[in-house]
Design brief:
The complex is a heterodimer of chains A (303) and B (237). Chain A is mostly helical. Helix content of chain A is 75%, strand content 1%. Chain A contains twelve helices and two strands. With 237 residues, chain B is of the alpha/beta class. Helices cover 37% and strands 27% of the residues of chain B. Chain B contains nine helices and ten strands. A six-stranded mixed sheet of chain B has the order 6-7-8-3-9-10, with helices on both faces. Chain B has a four-stranded antiparallel sheet with strand order 2-1-4-5, covered by helices on one side. In chain B, β9 and β10 form a beta hairpin. In chain B, α3 packs parallel to α5 and α4 crosses α5. The longest helix of chain B is centred in the last third of the chain and has 18 residues. Classes of the chains: A mainly alpha (303), B alpha/beta (237). At the A-B interface, α6 and α7 of A face α2, β6 and α3 of B.
């Protein structure tokens, strides 16, 4: 049961970390609003459920589009700073500002929705709407299916299409990519659109496993950053590796600690992610995908 | 082919090029030589749109392309080959060649890759390898092969023989001649190995402190008193 929850959480974390890594690689922006993107998705799914009776699972395509728009707007808002060559610190603060705007907007929207529906919508879950299959929660299958679909899609896009190879080229060396005639701006725009879309989809699934309030995004962002940094912010595969390491560790270690020392430990789940992130930064500053494994193997072999 | 008029350019507020005038003739090799920091590489980058232009014109096919962004210049059949990081290390050799033909249609890319592989047969055996695992010489062949795939009319090469052995550098010089003679490419070359570069060139420019100090045919430059002193290291000019 606990492993089931850990896998679901990891799947969603991968979706969120992938977006963060993608925009960091292409534009060097550490996006602190990524968590709130997800909560935008959660509230859009709630709206579709409450007003139009659409199941959150069926609303995923809509969330994808809404997230794409949110990502696009964020990028357009950041573009003047990027054009002026703003430092990472400035960009980070700018995304924090966007996060605060989103937080305020989501809070206000939850009030409006509460008034329309006639009951408070400040916090909600979808767990009661889920189905079960072979004794497992439906969200386990859906989130795993979304991840598999995403990985296949990304593989086909990045390795089998001209635009995908151009995207990889732009990520590695944008100025050289420009000399090839690639419109690097388009690839940046694409990464922000995809990042927003994935986050909103994750947000639509999140209420199946935890309670959502307008500020949930500010708590999840810790795990998202930890996942991207542990996996390596310079490689897309880093988000996948980091997502599962942080997701599984956070869930399982917190659970076993609470079993041993009391349920009070459940509140400190994010501390586990932070400790793993700090340890990774000390041992491998560029994350797991940034490690030269051939060198490590050689070192271990010769010693 | 390209006319440069009163060009002033640099990086941000740091001006590197001062009132540069130059003419790059069609189907010929034009070499830019000069001491370190004279603005040779900046000149190439500026022509390709990678620096800030304060004033001046770059006329290509009767159009001023000074404000045209790099990715559009690539579409105008102008290719630029940087001195370092001129291949995508994480992409395979085949992917590098494919991406070089980004602005061309699929069939044309296939045709151009075949041509590039005929000029640089050394690449045929390493097509599936990541470019980051290639030797310095192989990387340079790949970078030049990518320039050929682009089906460019103008090819700007920034120190293509840097960090190569003299033997490999000679092979590169021969390939440059082949690219001009076989494919009619207009080549603008920046080289540290000034003497050898001028020997294979038609025309030349000598830059000093961001300005054109002398210009003429490659032969005139080779025989110029100041060039002789510079190449012998007698004077900093």
């Amino acid at each position: 049961m606990i492993l089931e929850g850990a896998i679901i959480y990891s799947n969603l974390l991968v979706l969120l970390a992938l977006g963060l890594t993608l925009t960091y690689i292409t534009t060097n922006v550490p996006n602190f609003a990524q968590g709130s993107y997800a909560i935008v998705g959660s509230y859009v799914a709630l709206t579709l459920l409450k007003l139009f009776d659409i199941s959150p699972y069926l609303s995923l395509p809509v969330l994808f589009v809404v997230g794409a728009v949110v990502g696009l707007i964020t990028y357009l808002a950041l573009k003047p700073l990027l054009k002026r060559g703003a430092s990472v610190e400035i960009l980070m603060i700018a995304t924090l500002a966007i996060d605060l705007i989103l937080l305020g907007a989501i809070g206000a929207y939850s009030e409006i929705l509460s008034q329309i529906v006639g009951s408070t919508q400040a916090k909600f879950v979808f767990a009661n709407l889920d189905f079960t299959l072979f004794g497992f929660k439906g969200i386990l299958f859906v989130s795993t299916f979304v991840i598999i679909l995403l990985l296949i899609g990304l593989y086909l896009l990045l390795y089998k299409t001209k635009f995908g190879i151009a995207l990889r080229a732009s990520m590695e060396n944008p100025s050289l990519a420009q000399t090839m005639g690639i419109d690097v701006e388009k690839t940046r725009l694409f990464s922000w659109i995809l990042s927003g879309a994935l986050a909103c989809v994750a947000g639509g699934l999140l209420p199946f496993m935890q309670e959502i309030v307008p500020s949930t995004g500010d708590l999840i962002i810790i795990s998202i950053f930890a996942a991207s940094i542990v996996g390596g912010l310079r490689h897309i595969s880093g988000a996948l590796i980091g997502g599962y390491i942080i997701g599984l560790s956070e869930s399982l270690i917190t659970y076993y600690l609470s079993q041993a020392f009391g349920t009070g430990f459940l509140v400190y789940g994010k501390v586990i992610s932070l400790i793993i992130m700090i340890l990774t930064l000390l041992i491998a500053p560029y994350g797991i995908t940034g490690v030269d494994w051939r060198k490590v193997k050689k070192m271990l072999f010769t010693s | 082919m390209i006319k440069v008029k009163n060009l002033n350019a640099g990086y941000g507020k740091l001006q590197i090029l001062f009132d540069v005038n130059a003419k790059i003739e069609k189907g010929k090799i034009t070499t830019v030589v000069g001491p370190n920091g004279s603005g040779k590489s900046t000149f190439l980058k500026t022509l390709f749109g990678l620096t800030k232009i304060y004033s001046g014109e770059i006329i290509f096919k009767d159009k001023n392309i000074a404000k045209v962004p790099p990715h559009q210049k690539a579409r105008m059949k102008i290719a630029y080959l940087p001195q370092t990081n001129n291949v995508f290390a994480n992409l395979t050799v085949e992917e590098n060649l494919k991406i070089a033909g980004y602005v061309l249609d699929k069939d044309k890319v296939k045709e151009r890759i075949e041509i590039a592989l005929n000029v640089f047969p050394e690449l045929k055996d390493v097509l599936k390898r990541k470019a980051g695992t290639l030797s310095g010489g192989q990387r340079q062949f790949l970078a030049m092969g990518m320039a050929l795939v682009r089906d460019a009319e103008v090819l700007m090469l920034d120190e293509p023989t840097a960090q190569l052995s003299p033997k490999l550098a000679e092979v590169i010089f021969e390939k440059i001649i082949e690219m001009r003679d076989e494919f009619g490419l207009t080549i603008l070359l920046v080289e540290q190995n000034a003497k050898r570069a001028l020997e294979i060139s038609d025309n030349g420019y000598m830059f000093v402190s961001g300005r054109v100090a002398f210009e003429g045919t490659a032969e005139e430059l080779l025989n110029h008193e100041k060039f002789k002193e510079y190449s012998l290291g007698i004077t900093a000019i």
